[in-house]
């Protein structure tokens, strides 16, 4: 790790006025600094800023500096969010990692994290070895000729499914952006990962009130049960009334360059009975436009099966 200056601004305004890289839980930033992937000269510890709080008065409002473990345990947290957080990391990491930091975490692509090899996301224009190299963990949706790295956050998948928004604060004031629009697919500029502007901070996450999201889950498929990133995941929430699916929210992780909302799957579910046949027909639409690589062709059928499993989980009482 290279030498750096550490400061702790006492107010949000002071933080925004100070050049440097923001540090919250540090569970991603410190790792990347140790690898020399990120080499900031100045790090701003923002943990004392007033960006905490969980409020359920109208929907769910989560301060960006709330810890993952606290949000997962809060009684007002929707099951899909709580489960995504619990499956994201070990208890120790969940006690440290912040919600805002989780949403801003960088890809776990091995090429991105290895400074001895090219990576368009780390060094624009240098190339993407994953296109022809080891790519079992990489994306099949939302890819480009510049980058095929998957997005790492489980939480972001659950929040995108629920139409969450992020409030951003910067020197020009505040703005609110849909989380689905906050993340950018790589196209020709994979180094531009989000809509966050220079000097901005995520101040809070806003999830709209969705009473029927109490019927929701997050299914994560991975190589090992403990502390591993997703090969594939699915966030699902269903509104079932009179043996019909009135509304649905479905998003996928581990298979795309951004948290991947699946509107065609949602549309296929609406108005249909919650049966295996319905789930299979809807899940078949999830892989439209998929572009498998040499080592990850299994992800397309795995995504379909993962969605079916999640749909079955949230309708178990109806089938009992």
CATH architecture classification name of the domain at 212-319: 2-Layer Sandwich
Strand order in space, largest sheet: 4-5-8-6-7
Mean pLDDT equals: 96
**Succession of helices and strands:** EHEHEEEHHHHHEEHEEEEEHHHH
The number of helical runs is 12
Count all strands and give the number: 12
Describe the global form: globular
Beta fraction: 15-25%
> In CATH, what is the homologous superfamily of the domain at 212-319?
CO dehydrogenase flavoprotein, C-terminal domain
Poorly predicted runs of 5 or more residues: none
First-residue to last-residue Cα separation: 55 Å
Overall radius of gyration: 19 Å
CATH hierarchy, class of the domain at 212-319:
Alpha Beta
Description:
The protein is an alpha+beta fold and 320 residues long. Among the domains are: 1-48, Uridine Diphospho-n-acetylenolpyruvylglucosamine Reductase, domain 2 (2-Layer Sandwich); 212-319, CO dehydrogenase flavoprotein, C-terminal domain (Enolase-like, domain 1, 2-Layer Sandwich), CATH 3.30.390.50. The chain has helices at 12-17, 29-34, 68-73, 79-86, 91-96, 99-103, 154-161, 179-182, 263-269, 276-283, 299-314, 316-319; strands at residues 5-7, 21-23, 42-45, 54-55, 60-63, 165-170, 173-178, 201-207, 216-221, 232-241, 244-253, 260-261. Strands 4-5-8-6-7 form a five-stranded antiparallel sheet. It has a four-stranded antiparallel sheet with strand order 9-10-11-12. Helix 2 (29-34) links the parallel strand 2 (21-23) and strand 3. The chain is globular and about 60 Å long. The model has no long low-confidence stretch (mean pLDDT 96).
């Amino acid at each position: 790790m290279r030498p750096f200056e550490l400061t702790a601004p006492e107010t949000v305004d002071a933080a925004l006025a100070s050049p440097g890289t923001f540090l919250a839980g540090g569970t991603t930033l410190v790792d990347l600094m140790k690898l020399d992937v990120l080499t900031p000269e100045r790090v701003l510890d923002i943990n004392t800023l007033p960006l905490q709080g969980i409020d359920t008065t109208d929907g769910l409002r989560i301060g960006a500096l709330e810890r993952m473990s606290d949000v997962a345990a809060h009684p007002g947290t929707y099951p899909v969010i709580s489960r995504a957080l619990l499956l994201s990391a070990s208890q120790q990491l969940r006690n440290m990692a912040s919600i805002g930091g989780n949403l801003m975490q960088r890809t776990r692509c091995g090429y991105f994290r290895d400074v001895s090899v090219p990576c368009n996301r780390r060094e624009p224009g240098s190339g993407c070895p994953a296109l022809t190299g080891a790519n079992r963990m990489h994306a099949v949706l939302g890819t480009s000729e510049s980058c095929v790295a998957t997005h790492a956050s489980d939480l972001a998948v659950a929040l995108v499914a629920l139409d969450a928004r992020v409030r951003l604060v910067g020197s020009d004031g505040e703005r609110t952006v849909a989380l689905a629009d906050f993340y950018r697919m790589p196209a020709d500029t994979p180094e531009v990962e989000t809509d966050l502007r220079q000097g901005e901070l995520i101040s809070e996450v806003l999830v709209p009130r969705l009473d029927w999201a109490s019927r929701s889950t997050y299914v994560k498929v991975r190589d090992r049960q403990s502390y591993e990133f997703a090969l594939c995941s699915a966030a699902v929430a269903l509104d079932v009334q009179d043996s019909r699916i009135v509304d649905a929210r479905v998003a996928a992780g581990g298979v795309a360059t951004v948290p991947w909302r699946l509107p065609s799957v949602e549309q296929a579910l609406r108005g249909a009975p919650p049966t295996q046949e319905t789930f299979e027909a809807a899940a078949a639409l999830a892989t439209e436009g998929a572009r498998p690589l040499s080592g990850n062709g299994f992800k397309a059928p795995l995504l379909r099966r993962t969605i079916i499993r999640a749909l079955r989980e949230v309708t178990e009482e109806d089938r009992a």
